[in-house]
Write a structure and sequence with these properties.
Layout (H helix, E strand, L loop, with lengths): L7 H6 E3 L5 E4 L12 H7 L2 E3 L2 H11 L2
Antiparallel strand pairs: 1-2, 2-3
Amino acid sequence: MPKMKTHSGAKKRFKVTGTGKLMKQQAGMRHNLEVKAPGRKARLNKDQTLSKADTKVAKKLLGL
């Protein structure tokens, strides 16, 4: 059987931490940034852990 290929869209979007959690960039930082408060932009700019339900699917796409 051939090797599993990593989903190229998933590898660009998710980062695996040392403990095995998946991190993702939060949505909402692409446009209309002048109307958003600086604190909101700082909060949105941080990475966020992927939810437990989404983690199972994303790990399968990444081949983990």
